[in-house]
Every structure is written in structure tokens, then in C-alpha cells.
């Protein structure tokens, strides 16, 4: 077993106990050991996305896809990471009163990742800057009060 594989397995163990920071550290070390291994980047990206580190998630997803362009899972994951960034940006814009731009970004996110419920612009709530849900855990609605 290579050193990279050891770090990968260590990362999985940390994921099992929900320690995303240590899992990411293990995946980074695996990448350092074998920088041409697309799977290490994919697992780092997936973990970064789960822990709301969207920019790193996209970076590692794109790297995994570039290392293994024939892998459909890696290509799909790039779309999921892009959708996550668009969705979060749309939420922030909606909360600051930029509803039309937010809905456009949420629509783009829904096209990239149709199964992502928070990106659906038709399930969003139009909220003014003072009524925003700061947790980011709920979609914005189309209640136009």
C-alpha cells in the first residue's frame, strides 16, 4: 500500500467520525504523495463541499476532472461544486435585496445540479434585506409580500 493510499484511508476514517478538517488534511497529504491521482482530488473536493469550502471543492473537482477526463462522476461533481457556489451566492444576493440576480444564479445552479433543492428558483422566497435567513439552510421563497 502506498503512502497516498494510507492517507486516503485515514481520510475515510476521519469522515466516519465526522472530523472533516482532519479528513481534508489526510486527503491533502494523499495529493502531496501522488499528485496525479484524480481520486484523491475527488475525495478532497467532496469533503470540502460537505464542509462548505466551496472554492476549494471546485478547485479540486476541476483538477480531478482534468486528470481523468473520461470519468463521468468527476465531470458531474464539477457541476455540483459549481452549483453550490452559485446557490450560495444567490442566497446572499437574495438576502441583500438583489432578488432578480439571485433568481438568475439559482436558475443556473438548478441547471448544473437539478437534484439540489436549494438551487430551485421556483422554490425561493423573495425576502428583503431585513428578513433574511442568515443560516443559509433554507431556500429563499417566491412569497412576494
Which features would summarize this protein structure in a list?
145 residues, 6 helices, disordered C terminus, Serine Threonine Protein Phosphatase 5, Tetratricopeptide repeat, 64% helix, elongated, mainly alpha
Give a concise summary.
The protein has 145 residues and is mainly alpha-helical.
Description:
- The chain has 145 residues and is mainly α.
- It has two domains: 1-70, Serine Threonine Protein Phosphatase 5, Tetratricopeptide repeat, CATH 1.25.40; 72-145, no CATH class.
- 64% of the residues lie in helices and 0% in strands.
- It has six helices and no strands.
- The chain has helices spanning 3-16, 20-33, 38-50, 54-67, 72-95, 99-112.
- Residues 124-145 have low confidence and may be disordered.
The portion of residues assigned to helices is 55-70%
Form type: elongated
- Over the alpha carbons, how many angstroms does the gyration radius reach? 17 Å
For the biggest sheet, the summary is: none
**DSSP summary, beta strand count:** 0
Total domain units: 2
Order of helices and strands: HHHHHH
User: Which class best fits the helix and strand makeup?
Assistant: mainly alpha
Tell me the layout of helices and strands:
Elements: H1 3-16, H2 20-33, H3 38-50, H4 54-67, H5 72-95, H6 99-112
Amino acid at each position: 500500500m502506498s503512502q497516498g493510499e494510507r492517507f486516503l484511508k485515514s481520510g475515510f476514517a476521519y469522515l466516519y467520525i465526522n472530523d472533516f478538517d482532519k479528513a481534508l488534511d489526510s486527503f491533502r497529504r494523499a495529493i502531496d504523495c501522488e499528485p496525479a491521482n484524480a481520486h484523491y482530488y475527488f475525495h478532497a473536493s467532496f469533503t470540502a463541499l460537505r464542509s462548505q469550502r466551496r472554492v476549494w471543492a471546485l478547485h479540486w473537482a476541476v483538477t480531478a476532472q482534468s486528470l481523468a477526463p473520461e470519468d463521468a462522476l468527476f465531470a458531474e461533481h464539477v457541476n455540483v461544486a459549481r452549483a453550490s457556489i452559485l446557490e450560495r451566492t444567490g442566497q446572499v444576493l437574495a438576502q441583500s435585496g438583489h432578488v432578480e440576480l439571485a433568481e438568475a444564479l439559482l436558475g443556473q445552479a438548478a441547471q448544473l445540479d437539478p437534484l439540489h433543492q436549494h438551487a430551485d428558483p421556483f422554490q425561493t422566497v423573495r425576502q428583503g434585506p431585513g428578513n433574511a435567513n442568515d443560516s443559509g439552510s433554507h431556500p429563499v421563497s417566491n412569497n412576494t409580500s
